[in-house]
Every structure is written in C-alpha cells, then in structure tokens.
Amino acid sequence: MVCLTEETVETLYRIGAGELVVGVSGFTVRPPEARKKPHVSSFLEADLERICSLRPELVLGFSDLQAPIAADLAALGVPVYVMNQRSVAEILQAIRIVSALVGRAEAGEALVAELTRTLEEVADRAARLPRRPRAFFEEWPDPLIAGIRWVSELVELAGAEDVCAECRLQRGAKGRIMAPETVAERDPEVVVASWCGRKAVRSRIAGRPGWQRVRAVLDDQLYELKSSLILQPGPAALDDGVRALSRIVSAVALGEHLPVRGAGELRGV
Q1: How many other C-beta atoms lie within 10 A of the C-beta of residue 77?
Q2: Most buried pick, 27, 136, 197, 220, via CB within 10 A?
Q3: What global pTM score does this model have?
C-alpha cells in the first residue's frame, strides 16, 4: 500500500496493518515510525516513478485535489482508490473502507467503535458545561479560511458554537474564505488557529482590523492546535484532536485559560 495522505497511514497502523505500508506522504507524522517509510508525495504532487518502483498493490488518496495524481497512476496501470470524506460520519466510513480493502474489516469496526466512544465522551462533557462559547476555527490566515466540515462539527461537539458554521457545506477552501471584518462582527469568544505547515502568530491574529474589540482577543483566548491533530480526516481528528478542542472549549466556558506556550505565542494544548 502507498498512502498519499497521513490519515490512511494512521488507520492502517491502528488496525494492525502497518507492515503493508510501503510508501507515505512527506507530510506524514502519525505514527512516528511511519516516517521511516519512503516518502513519495506531497499533497498535490507525487513521484510516480518512485511509487511504481515500490510495486504497490493499491495506492490510497484523499480529495478531488488528488484526482490528477490518481489519473496519472491509473494510466500507468497502478490500482488507485481515492476517498473524499468531509464530515465526521464520512471519516468513520472511510476507516471502514480502508480496513475492508486490506481484509481487516473487523479491526476497522473496532477502531470505529473506539473513536465513537471518544466522541460520545466529549459530547457528554460538553453537555455539562455552563454555556456554549462562540468559536472561530481558522485553517489559514491570509486569505482567512474557516474550518472544514469535520472541524466545524467537532468544534460544536466539544461544546462551542461555530460562528462560521455555514462554511461547513463548502467542500473547497475557496468557499470558506471569510473577511476578517465579518468574523470580528460575529465576536468569537475563542479563536483556534491551525495553519497547516506554519506556526500561528498571535500578533497576526490580534492585529487584524477590528479585532482589538473581539472578545477572544480581549480575554486572551487565542489558541493554536497542531494541524496534524485536527486537519487530517482520520483517527487523529476523532481522538487527540477532538479532546484538545474539548479542553479549549471547556476552559473558555468556565472562564479559565490554558497555558501560553511561550513569549508572544498562543495558548496551546
């Protein structure tokens, strides 16, 4: 198996099929041992020659954005399966599909059950909070991009109200671009930044026009969450990712603050 994105790698390792993985994306960080596998792709580009040299029985991809890679591989006679999950329910189904493709359907169902229990525990904790704070999750600073569907769903599962919830129906990032002034008008009480491949900068968030009066800035409820925990549509988002969101939302709802990571940095989990 060659995995062009991280979530299928993590799924295969968590169902006990990590030995089947022969190639991974250069962005793979979970699990750490998978980084020892040959790196064959970024997100939008792949080394077709190297992939073919690994003689994979199947290549797994994610998103319509990887359709050109899939087409090139198919033209070379390489079997390819590309998924396009966007919601929490679709992530769970993708785990079932990957597990079934490698003959580990039972292990896949066990992983889905484990992740479902985590989601239920987070929802139970959220139900006990005194209130639901307004939240804004940003994937990118410029242009300002709101959270993808599964992230928006997890934010609300953790006990917050996503101030840009309407964006979740947009499959592409372009449909989730928000004017900073519009977000400021919605006055989020907490901001969670997860800039894929870049470190979030506090001054850049707090210094946006009109944001000096945003409740999250006034109360210093600005957080950074590693993209590897929340922006991969796989197991990480549904356990470590949603737990981190739960801790952030709980702190805000209770009028508390999680620690600042360092001088001038955002708070973290």
Answers
A1: 7
A2: 136
A3: 0.95
